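S.,

As promised, the 2-phosphoglycolic acid run. Input:
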Amino acid sequence: MRKPIIAGNWKMNNTVKDTEALLTELQPLVKDAKCDVVVCVPFTDIVRAVELCKGTNIHVGAQNVAWADKGAFTGEISAAMLVEAGAEYVVLGHSERRQYFGETDETVNKRLTQAIRNGLKPILCVGETLAEREGNKTEGVLQVQLAGAFKDVEAKQAADVVIAYEPVWAIGTGKTATSAQAEETIAFIRSEIAKLYDRQTADAIRIQYGGSMNPSNASELMAQPDIDGGLIGGASLKAADFAKVVNF
Ligand code: PGA
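Predicted complex:
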């Protein structure tokens, strides 16, 4: 019922030249994918990535968007700029943004509503830290993050948001949540969406797992009933590895 979606999050990697090499190698490897395939690239790579992916099944996304339409916001990139560059998706609220660049549930909500207003498809990241998991606070943390992010978002729009559940302790550490842990927490997120909205929205929304997902654990994670995809960091930087995840 829900089409799986595998997205690469390149983070601050790949110049335009690197982008050309990686996408050229990737295209033939993922052309028969049964899932939606997305690469979320640095702002400066978007235009070239869109050109290269034209006529292929690879969709291009950005890694953040400003909450304002335009104006005196040095260093920010607007939704109109992303749309014109050809981006379709945008990662929002990644834990690295929250940790290093002061993103809060409030700024994530403002960016989310701005993305939706402009027709960008958000990939909304939520997840707990190791201390929060060990302190049995995971569910409470996720409740606050979800209620904050979806404030003033209508059910119809919420159903098109992709949620990425990324336990912070699993990102870039090689430490993946077990498929049982990931499934349990993602099922919890889905039940929270049902509480915030309704069952129909909860059944429609796609929820990815992210955090050291790679060719060796992708198929087991993807076999879980509530896991609809992955947000892939490190393993998205090598065409062969990313293709193996996409072709789980
Ligand atoms: P990772 O990153 O796959 O390198 O752990 C995932 C992410 O941060 O989106």
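DSSP finds twelve helices and eight strands in the chain. Residues 147 and 196 are 7 Å apart (CA to CA).

- D.
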